[in-house]
Design a protein that fits this description.
This protein is mainly α. It is built from 12 helices and no strands. It holds the Pfam family Cullin_binding. It comes from Zizania palustris.
């Protein structure tokens, strides 16, 4: 197996050719054995795996990946190259970097997913999670329509969906509150919330509200004085009558 001695692009092309030849084998056993041998050869040359990994973006631009099956194979190839030191899983940092390379423009929730993984995931990414995310990116829309909670998704994907639901729910609540505040500002003194009461007089601030309060006060406290003017009793007793009427 001849490998280029220099150049990231050439190393990536050679590795991908070897990979495609292996996965076209007749049996799964032959495929597994061939991929294991490919990994050993790559790890046997210092810096080769990183050279191949760094050459992935240019390799993608040189390949026709519009075909679904061809892209699926390439996606699996990236996982193989992302493994380090003979490990079966890949580190979070390596996985996020790879996802941003290969799923850019193909997964609308890519940024949110990568941010979620970097913040909450504690363990390395398994091959099952890697493959299931590709399926998730195809089935599920940005609003999470198409997600099947009863499906066989990895826990990490399920946790991500719950995380996004909380974000969307919080956003809906904020929008509803802003709408209510806008309604309240448009119709001053009207509270759009269910079970609301009239504005307390102690909180009236505008001149119009103060005038209304003054009119209300006058109508209550000056009513006895109106009756007082109609009474023939002397001023001394009229004052007493006014005070007495107010307490009846």
């Amino acid at each position: 197996m001849a490998w280029p001695t220099h150049g990231f692009d050439a190393a990536a092309v050679q590795a991908y050719r070897q990979y495609c030849g292996i996965i076209s084998g007749c049996t799964n056993a032959d495929t597994r054995e061939g991929l294991a041998e490919l990994s050993r050869v790559i790890d046997g040359m210092r810096g080769l795996r990183d050279a191949i990994f760094n050459g992935i973006p240019k390799l993608m631009s040189a390949l026709d990946l519009d075909d679904v099956c061809r892209f699926n194979n390439f996606y699996d190839f990236v996982f193989l190259i992302s493994r380090e030191n003979g490990q079966k899983n890949i580190t979070i940092q390596r996985a996020v970097t790879a996802w941003r390379m290969v799923l850019d423009g193909r997964f609308r929730l890519l940024d949110r997913w990568c941010n979620f993984v970097e913040k909450y995931q504690r363990y390395n990414i398994t091959e099952d999670t890697w493959k299931q995310l590709l399926a998730f990116s195809k089935w599920v829309n940005e609003d999470l329509e198409g997600y099947d909670p009863k499906g066989a998704c990895p826990v990490l994907v399920d946790d991500f969906v719950e995380h996004m639901h909380r974000i969307y729910h919080s956003s809906d609540c904020s929008s509803e509150m802003e709408s209510q505040l806008s309604f309240s500002n448009t119709f001053g003194g009207i509270n759009p919330l269910p079970g609301s009461k009239r504005k307390c007089p102690a909180r009236l601030n505008s001149n119009e509200d103060v005038d209304l309060l003054d009119n209300f006060t006058c109508s209550v406290h000056l009513a006895p004085l109106k009756r007082l003017k109609e009474s023939p009793i002397s001023t001394k007793y009229r004052v007493w009558e006014c005070n007495a009427d107010m307490y009846h």
